[in-house]
Amino acid sequence: MTTEIVEPASGGVDLDPTDQSIGVDRVAADGMAVKARSQRQMVIRRFLRHRLAMSSLAVLTSMVILAYVGLWFWDLPYDRSGTVVDGGRSTIDLIPWIDGDGFQMGQHPFGQDNIGRDYFAVTLKGAQGSITVAVVAGLVATTIGTIVGALSGYFRGLTDTVLMRIVDVLFTIPLLLLAAVLSRRFDTGGAIGGALIIASLIWLTTARVIRAEFLSLREKEFVEAARALGAGHTRIITKHMLPNVVGSIVVSATLLISAAILIEAALSFLGFNITEFSLGRQVQTYRTAFNTRPWLFWWPGVFIIVIALCINFIGDGLRDAFDPKQTRVRQ
Amino acid sequence: MSEPLVEVSDLVKTFPIKGDGFLQRVVDQVQAVSGLSFDIAAGETLGLVGESGSGKSTAGRAILRLHEPTSGSIKFEGREVTELDSKAMQELRQRMQIVFQDPYASLNPKLPVNDIVGEPLVIHTKMNRKERERKVAQLLSDVGLQPEHGNRYPHEFSGGQRQRIGIARAIALDPDFVVLDEPVSALDVSVQAGVLNLLRRLQDERGMAYLFIAHDLSVVRHVSHRVAVMYLGKIVEIGERKALFQTSAHPYTRALMSAVPVADPHRERTRETITLEGDVPSPINPPSGCRFRTRCWRATDLCAAEAPELVEHTPGLLTACHHPIGPDEVVTRADTNSAVLAD
Amino acid sequence: MTSTEVGNAAVTSDALDDEVMLRVEDLSVSFPTEDGVVQAVRGVSYEVKRGEVFAVVGESGCGKSVSSMALMGLLPKTARIEGRARYLDNDLLGRPDREVRGFRGSKLAMIFQDPMTSLNPVYTIGKQLAEAVLAHHRIAPKVAMERAIDMLDVVGIPQARKRAKSYPHEFSGGMRQRVMIAMAIINNPDVIIADEPTTALDVTVQAQILETLLEAKERVGAAIVLITHDLGVVAGMADRVGVMYAGRFVETGDVNEIFHATRMPYTAGLLGSIPDLDSEVAELTPIEGAPPSLINPPEGCKFMVRCPMARPACGESEPPLAPTDRPGHFSACKFSHELEGNQDTSEIFKPASVSGGAS
Prior knowledge:
The structure holds three protein chains of three kinds.
Chain A: H1 3-10, H2 29-32, H3 39-48, H4 51-73, H5 96-99, H6 119-155, H7 157-172, H8 175-185, H9 191-202, H10 204-218, H11 221-228, H12 233-241, H13 246-269, H14 279-286, H15 295-322, H16 324-330
Chain B: E1 6-18, E2 26-40, E3 45-49, H1 56-63, E4 71-76, E5 79-80, H2 86-92, E6 96-99, H3 113-124, H4 129-142, H5 159-171, E7 177-181, H6 189-206, E8 209-214, H7 217-223, E9 226-231, E10 234-240, H8 241-247, H9 251-259, H10 265-270, H11 301-305, E11 311-314, E12 317-319, H12 333-342
Parallel strand pairs in B: 3-8, 3-9, 6-7, 7-8
Antiparallel strand pairs in B: 1-2, 1-4, 4-5, 9-10, 10-12, 11-12
Helix pairs in contact in B: 3-4, 3-5, 4-5, 5-6
Chain C: H1 14-17, E1 20-33, E2 36-49, E3 53-57, H2 64-72, E4 80-87, E5 90-91, H3 97-101, E6 108-111, H4 115-118, H5 125-134, H6 141-154, H7 160-163, H8 173-185, E7 191-195, H9 203-220, E8 223-228, H10 231-237, E9 240-245, E10 248-254, H11 255-260, H12 265-272, E11 322-323, E12 330-331
Parallel strand pairs in C: 3-8, 3-9, 6-7, 7-8
Antiparallel strand pairs in C: 1-2, 1-4, 4-5, 9-10, 10-12, 11-12
Helix pairs in contact in C: 5-6, 6-8, 8-9
């Protein structure tokens, strides 16, 4: 990603006709080798300046802290029922300045469910479950996708044909249906099991992306140079190729995590158990209460939307940080 | 010349053109290199010149088995390279190295220079970290870079400096033979001269043999002991540098030399030039017989029927031509133009 | 060459010969980037007369391409362009696009380095050429197509009528560049800007293309701004030369002056670093170091750090392009007089020790 230094010299992005040549204008970077700033620093700097991504990161972090740490400090456990007060209404002041009494959490900020459990605690527990499933699924899927894509793109030939045909076939099967069947077949219960089911379905795009990157990287002269030095496959893949696709891997991981959140919610909503506690499951459970006690439906729903959105925005920010050229086109 | 270091005979490399579709049937062949033979003595530089599509780079890579040769033999110190298994080949890679054309693409952007130059040492030696660092620092200063810059990344260097890093990597294990694949054609002239001087100095100091691949005749003349001219996958002329540049018998070599513009307005505007017609034909369907005949002003029916062999027409020079140009013969513009009308 | 009557039919009367076709005054281009403002072009001025070939020569990154793309309106929106450029009596810069579109592409034509990217792969060559005519003239498509075929013939494409029906991928690199020349001259331009027109081509093809370009120029009586890094091409083609370094001209003058009466150390260094095909030299003389960064460039002469003649005075202020002892010859060097009477000016670069320093 030396583009950063090269661009000023050649002036334009795609306009410069000399860009195509071997290096005539790329050598322009000669004079421009600005300051010694590593690419990692560049990526971080660009990400930090991406406002939407940064605020999403802040929101997401606070939600995660709230879900995992907040539950500890909240004195009402999620599994203890009690007396339903005021029909279980939320006691949180959503618009505190209207009635003039300032911000108040109240006893049950998110209200109570029909058996008097504190719904704030329940929602946080659900968020915990959803986030765990999504993160595990996203990471596992990224790993599978990266490995398959890397092998496919590096070895090409038969390996590539076999692996990619498998991917093609999997692509044609409706995802949700398959997940539903799997979750029925293997009644997992735990978050990890559920995560694995989701992961086994969403790695396909990552595999294709990484394969494409490997195919083009493989033709790069530095990879050829490594072969000429006598470096083995493992060394070439891990030392020379993978570090050059970190950007794509990170971006696709974030996108997979947000996809996993939504898939989990959808599956739970359809009544297939992915994990015991999850936001999707709460939505499913209380969808019948929509008319009577809508907050039981809304709170987990809002959580799902906010988490998924935040992760998507962070993914956007990362992509722009890793690949500044793309940003420019969009503007 | 004693026993040659590298001996290439009848080297052929074809690339299949695959059709679309599931089975990816081979629909055609590109004959990148068709029957190349030459040898290189220890400490010698053989310049390999040709235009795009002549197969010169493919030849260089095939000799190192970066592209697996389709057929033919490559001998390194008398040992057949094409028959080595992957382990023996890896061992041999210590002794034959390559420097690439593009200084931007040939260095891994994610590794600091120390790791790039030190990689051959990691792969092939048992040096510990300390020893390796010392060796890398030595190498960097050998190629005219400051050893303190070893922990920087490639993008912090200019094109010429990067090419020096690539050279340091190639010579790290003291190879006997280095393929230089257009090492200066991506560099500005002012920088190019420095790299050429460096390559020459390193050869003097270490006695390496070079295969210097280039499209630029003036650069090749500057660095080579012997020169081979390639056209469409075949050598059309090969011999001592002096003989080739002064008494070339092949019309293509003459045309190629004539086409290089001279950086002197007076000479450039008064000299006799040969302008070839057309472009290099596609290597998928090369012309029959002599491959140069479609652009040659001396071509006859014989050229279409029969491919010429490399024969010594002038001393010190092997030429593949049915109608070689005599050493004292001067080709004028008029000669080349009259032939075109006949075409 | 196919039998094309190239030549003298076109406008080349003496009266018109001195007509200035393109005048660029104090052109500056800068690009804001994350690391600061890149001053790609810093005050470039030149003029080109009818029938003249003006070569802008320099190494990569010196701003030679950017300066011409500014004239053609091809720079990204982020570029800040200052200064003036006039084609005959028309201002080219600082005006809305639609006002200059009329002569950009017709009276001012451009030839790029890579012909493949400038041709649309889905249309035939003939159609694209005809389209170029129709964009500027209200004539029947049939007439435009005839004009296209004529032009293909002019640039030496055999069987022009037949080849006009071919698509770009059916042409070889050299043929495509001929098509680009045809496209450039099809509207009888007054100025042709050729940006590295032969860099992507093989030498044996380069010679043909340069010849074609000159013939085409004669035919329409245009001026050529030739942008190149190849001093050999300059030597063969140019009437006048401007040598660019770090965004501005450091030496301008007649082509013979530049090559044989060099008054700027940088030019001398460039000339000395070219390996000569006709002579045997043991050591080439490189210019040590690399061009300076154009973000906050140092005070004073930008070539100072690489210059063997440099002394403290060079760092004080950037020398302007000033007249030298020879007429029409300008140099931006405070000590250019020291090069007077020097036969082989590249001598000054002969290093004391060869190995030193990175290039």
